[in-house]
Protein 1
Amino acid sequence: MNAPTRYVDDSVKGFITWSIIWGTISVLVGILISLQLAWPQLNVAPYLTYGRLRPIHTNAGIFGWGVGSFIAMFFYITQRLTRTPLWSPVLARVTLWIFNFAIASAAVTLAMGFNRTKEYAELEWPIALIVAVVWLMFSTNVFMTILKRKEEQMYISLWYIMATLVAVTILYVVNNLGVPLNLFKSYSAFSGTNDANVQWWYGHNAVAMVLTTPPLAIFYYFLPKVTGNPIYSHRMGIIAFWSLIFMYLWTGAHHLLWTPVPDWIQTVAMAFSIMLIAPSWGAVMNGYLTMNGRWEQMKTNYLVKFLICGITFYGLQTLQGPMQAVRSFSAFIHYTDWVPGHVHMGTMGWVSMVLFAAIYYVTTKMSDTEIYSIKLANTHFWLILVGQLVYSITMWIAGVQQGSMLLATNPDGTLHYSFMETMVAIFPYYKMRAVSGFIYLAGLVVFIYNIYKTFRKGEDLLTAKA
Amino acid sequence: MLEKNPVIFIILAFVVIMAGTTVTMIAPFKWINGPGDRIAEVKPYTPLQQEGRDIYMREGCNNCHSQTVRTLAADVERYGYGGTYSKSGEFVYDRPQLWGSRRTGPDLAHIGLKYPDVKGAWHRKHMENPQSVVPASNMPAYAFLKAPLDTTYSERKMKLLSFPYTQADLDELKGKTEMDAIIAYMRKLGTDIPVKKAEAASQASVATSNPFTDLQAIKAEAESLYKQNCASCHGDKREGTLGPALRGSAKPDADLFKIISQGIEDNGMPSFSGSLDEQKVWKLVTLIKKDAQ
């Protein structure tokens, strides 16, 4: 696509830079709280206690690193797929600064204890409002670019992008409804079981519309770009897309199995969760079959490694997830460390791996140069992979062990283990999990160094030309 | 056409997303928290309890403590404290709910039934320094909650949440610390619901004699009962922490049975007649009497 169109990429660069910064903060806080779980004396009251830090870790990860880099990639991809420059570069720049203001104030206010306590919607109403404004500014910019496009056909990635814009707006607004007490405190508009049902309708579809459709949009765009292979099946992409966005919205209550939420909602959620395997694997197979006859690229192209490993983690996630959504299995592992093990394979594995590939690719394109070091990119890959696997595997074992201890009973029906005995049994895994965090962090440092050097290389080339 | 018209595409995507949303999220408002869910005994929070709840939220306690006893035998046994599993009606005044998603600490939905002590001595000691009561605990210390409670918004909160309150309720806030408030909240959790009494562990059976004379036969079960129900106040090794040491007590079996099943209100010893049946109480009596090591 060497059309004469002049794409506007300064905001892409800005969002990439800041999302990497917030992502690093998320990992650092993650390591700190993983250490606190093993050594409680590391809690520094009141601001740096586990209860206040954990939402900072999740918000910096999902909104700072995740949403930040999705905005960058959506700006980048949309311009190329529509062969149209960004609708408003000024709006994009303003979006970046308000975005950073929102994430920074989220971190500060969460440490101060302003917490709505609804998972992944913890921010108090003034900041939630700013987040909503950021999202609408970004959505308008992307949608207007699509509307004014020069390329008539809309590629699959644009579908995922548009679905994301609509769905996230609805989810975020509804779950944040509440009545303000003052500037720093509000109460949810819903109560009790209703509030739980709304919360997990939101919570699970944040996974769908923030941690699934955006990386899929990115994956569908970059896999053909990086490999030179056209996507295997456009039709399969279409079927998988519509069934995915249809089915996901029914599944929230699988987070609420065995609770007072009406049984039929739980059962519906369970059934739709199993059905979701089909559209999820539709995307996975589309990725794999795109590689047909070109699998040697796994060895020769470092970006393919990230993308294929990422989509493999997605495939594993979408098999494990439905399994967890079944009542009997949920009874066993819900509330244990199995679940963080599952979630982190999605975030550290699937989402981050696809983003790493996209960021490498975009950085080299924007700098008009080759990557600084393929060797370092490979080192990065292996550190990330090992860090993530150690994290998830230790947490699965911890979850199964604690889950079975919690359910064990004596012949007379009394419980066999006290709660503390089940905790003491999993402390060794907590220490291993902290180690996995350091391995992942090492990978991240290598990545940042490589990106920085590539960027500098591009700058030097530019000065040499001038 | 779909692949060429973004406006129609967006509208269609919206409709598809709203299908599941309407059925599983919007429609249930018609049933949930309706008259069928109501439990008459469940009362709204007092100003002090609500302040405590807000401190619970501020500290992010929900990140480690869930508040729903699932309809599973092991859940009811471990976290029900005689109040069985959680029902929708228990949560109608919770905005938001604090059900949580991870139990790094125990479930607290019915914690008020476990520690009914009016002074909240166990909670106070535990929150100031968790490891002093539960040595292996990984809970952070919350000694800083001894700060005075900010009551600026207490009355406005009641109005906003439409909870009834009296002047006496507001007066109760005077001179209270944040610790007092969060303990008031802990003591409220689960205590409104009618508690099912375990069969036969009533005063009438006190006269009957201990059916378990051989400690070895029941030791494993008795020790696990002890760890579940007694260790948090009497120590893992029965050495005594908040409550007295329990090694080879000289009290007659019947007296020990009465203390465990009925409690001693004045010194904070809870009644276990709600959560332990007669057999289990006798097993504990045998353990306390016969195992002096």
Note: The longest strand of chain A covers residues 178-182.
Protein 2
Amino acid sequence: MDSLIIIATGSLVAVCGSILGCFLILRKMAMVSDAISHAVLPGIVIAFMLGSDLDSAWMLVGAGLVGVLTTFLIEFFHQHGKLQTDASIGVTFTWLFAIGVILVTYYAGDAHIDQDCVLYGEIAYVPIDPIILSNGQVLGPKALIVLGGVLVIILVCIIPFYKEFFLTTFDPSFAIATGVSASLWHYVLMSLVSITTVASFESVGAILVVAFLIVPPATAYLLTNRLHYMILLSCGFGILSAILGYYLAYAIDGSIAGAMATIAGLVFGVVFIIAKYLEKSRRIAEMEELSLASK
Amino acid sequence: MNLETFIEFFSLQNPNVRYVVLGSVLLSISSAIVGCFTFLKKKALLGDVVSHAVLPGICISFMVSGTKDPFILIIGAFLSGWLSIIVLDYIVANSKIKEDTATGLSLSVFFGIGILLLTVIQHSGNAAQTGLDSFLFGKAAALVGKDLLAFSIIATVILIVVFFFYKEFKLVCFDQEYAKSIGLPVKKIELLLTSITVLAVVTGIQAVGVVLMAAMLITPAAAGKFWTNRLSIMLLLASVFGAFSGIAGAYISYAAPSMPTGPWIVMILSFIAILSFFFAPEKGILIKLFKQRKIRNQLLEENLLKSFYKIGEMNEDFTASRSNEELIEIRRFSSAQFKAGLSRLSSQGFIKKENSTWSLTQEGFQKGMRVVKLHRLWELYLTKYLRIAPDHVHEDADTIEHVITPEIEERLEKLLEYPEADPHSSNIPYQ
């Protein structure tokens, strides 16, 4: 039962990450998600300090705001300070992360949080942290429920506005010309990335969320050019990595989240080789066709 | 701040303090210098990738050697840091995946493998492993003599390499095509640059940890860039910023022992960088805003004076008072701008206020006349020499009238032989 819960949690992170990640990598914003996943640390610490029973919900709201703030700062330094994007990302997220670490150390006694947990999480604890209702009824593992909620939020934001996300991703100037606000959907996407990060940081940690946001979508991108296939394929690769990762970690007694990221990388490697081989044989076939045609 | 602690710290009597201060300063300077080059190559996030990617190398060399000797661990770290860059470049070169995605991919997968190996080591019950995770979070406040020795050697190597290959690095960063054309081995120089970057990162993360290492490379360079366009000065500034933050960070964690050194170094660096972004002369955000405002004000004032002159021209009376309505009829101004512009003009002595009407002073009349004259001269120039139709020249003249210098004014007058009227047969006024 526990292993099922862990795999389900991993798969939920993978699915949330895959959906958002496809848009991110097509917008060439993969590293912004890396930045956000680190920058939410001060937000998490503050939420912990304010700690209430509603902490999960508040943390998601707070995270959304911090994500928007991070995105805004990156854009601000880039546009008004003429600082190149990569440097703007680097300066912003390390600064916010440093603030977070200092806060963690300062309030170390009060908050049940430390750097380890933020960086690489511990998915193995998911089954032993259930949400218990006031009448004593056990609702289920907290991380699983929160992540399920986040997935619902993502679907509610993306499915009705698929067209807007699609347009602003592939042709922002056309989108603006037809009256779709590129920056609105940009900030919505970034807020979704932040809440996904916060919802999953306890289980897989900030950096491995990035693995789920980037690696499965990149793998899918190798195989297709169509966005909806890419999202579906990416979810598939993500879930596969979650399942295989769990068993790898089980076999060698290591971090489950780490193993999931390792498998995701491995899957990418395999698909990369296959895709290269397919392209090569396609090219050879094309050349043969050409030489036949010229005869 | 406690003076005693302050003196105790800066007299460097305590060997522990000495190690921490020297270590932090060496690290900060060498990463700041390397960071300037990666910054200029627009590969600032390379350091972030490498700092995450050294973890598997550290774990594997620990597994193989069974010791925590910094030199042995650094070799493993160096190799896996290197490998991550090669993987990144290979993916970008051989697929349609873009650089940012490949960066994130390489970073997160290497880090994932590292975490997996680290936990396997931790669970193996090997007692020697404790402290390996200092590579994750840094341990600047717990540096010992042996670490310092390793830092000094590596910092020296980096400085020597930069000193001898300064020109080559500069060329490769600024103008790769030119570097190629004069026969420089660009690929090899890039390789060398990547190597010293990896080296700087590998040493740095022991002090500040995986995540904050990126800041040690990027932030001083980004701050330095706002003050200068010269590489040599940028390197110097970045090193000074780095060294200052190193000392200050060490001091804070000395004065308040619960405070971590690394994050404070980065906090102070970021603070310097953000101050630079806003307040640096020429490139700072505030200075730019200030300049923009100044230009906008100048345009507004000149346009207002022009309106005064035109009304005067129509009524053949330049000194009479004008009401707000009359002025707005000539040219549309937004009401807030209009009021602010008029009050600035009156405080500069170009116009006088009488009740709620305004009249030109002698200076204001001169200035308004000059703007009108430039406008009409330019219109004439455009129709006469560039053969642009008279109904197309107004817009252009409206812009250029504010920037023509007295020298160009004189040349225009001579070229057009002191004309009487513009293409719309309006009179061109002279003093």
Note: Chain B touches chain A through 67 residues (CB under 8 Å).
